[in-house]
Amino acid sequence: MQQARIDDRIYLITPDLGFSVLEKFRDEFPKRFLNAGIAEQNAVGVASGLALSGKIVYVYSIVPFVTMRCFEQIRIDVAYMNTNVRLVGVGAGLSYGPQGATHHAIEDIAIMRALPNMTVCAPGDPLEVRELTNASFYHQGPMYIRLGKNNEPQIHSPGTKISLGKAIEVTKGDDLVLITTSNTLELGLKWVKEWDEQNVKVRLISMPTVKPIDVEMINKIIEEGLPILTLEEHNIVGGLGSAVAEVVAESEKKIKFKRIGLPDVYSHYVGSQDFLREKLGLVRPSI
C-alpha cells in the first residue's frame, strides 16, 4: 500500500479471490484494481498487457489457480515476453488440506523454476514476505511469490537482512545443515530444537529465493564438508531439493545429502495440514 501511494505504476488483479485481503487496495486505488472474475488466463493476459505498457502488475490467487490453470499464458505472455508481472500464490504446499488435491500446491516451484526469466520466491515468515515484496517493486522481469496461508510466526529477528537471491542463516551448527524454504521454515526450526535436545547441532538455512538459488551459500557448506538435508512442503521432484542437488552434483565434491519433501503422489487423504504432513511422511528423520 505504501509503495502504491508513491508509484502509480502498481496494479493489482484478482481472479475473484482474496476477499477480506484486497479491499483496502481496491478502495484506495479503484482505477488500479481489477477483479477479472473466475478467468485466470484472462487475468494473466491483462496483467501482461499492462506490464508491456510500463506497469508493475500483481496477480493474486490460490497457488494452483495462479500457476497451473493459466500456465500457457504465464509461459508466453509473462516469461517469454519478460514482463514485470508478479504472480502471487497463497496456500503453499498442503495449506488448504481439507479442500483436497485440487487446492494442494505441490508442483508449483518445479514448473515455475523451469521457466526462463522467472524469479521464484518462497518466503517462510512475515519478514521474508515483506522484504521480498519490497524487492519486487524494483526487480526487472517476472516473479512468482509463493505464500503460506496466513498467521505464520516471525522466525527472524527484526533487522535481519533479507535480499533477493540470498539465503539466511537462522541457527548455527556444525553437525549438519538443514536448508528449508517457504512454509516449512517454522517446521525446520522445530526440528532443529528437537535435535539440539539430542545434542545434535544443526545449522538452519532459510532459502526464500529458490531461483536464482544462493549457489555461493551452498558451495560454502559443501566446502565445509557438512551433511546437507533439504526440507520443503512440495513434491520431492523439482523443488528446493532438486535445486540444491544440482549445485551439489556440479561441485564434484563428495558430501552426504538427502532431500525431505512430499512423495511423488497426489494425496487421497483429506484433513488438516498437520494431518496430511504426517500421512505423507513429512516427519523429522532420526540422526
Please provide a written account of the structure.
The chain is an alpha/beta fold. It is 34% helix and 20% strand. Strands 2-1-3-4-6-5-10 form a seven-stranded mixed β-sheet. Strand 5 (119-121), helix 7 and strand 6 (143-147) form a beta-alpha-beta unit. The protein is globular and about 55 Å long.
Fold blueprint:
Elements: H1 2-6, E1 10-14, H2 23-28, E2 33-35, H3 40-52, E3 56-62, H4 63-67, H5 71-80, E4 85-90, H6 108-113, E5 119-121, H7 126-136, E6 143-147, E7 168-169, E8 176-180, H8 185-197, E9 202-206, E10 209-211, H9 215-224, E11 228-235, H10 240-251, E12 257-262, H11 273-279
Parallel strand pairs: 1-2, 1-3, 3-4, 4-6, 5-6, 8-9, 8-11, 11-12
Antiparallel strand pairs: 5-10, 7-9
Helix pairs in contact: 3-5, 9-10
In brief, what are we looking at here?
With 287 residues, the chain is an alpha/beta fold. Helices cover 34% and strands 20% of the residues.
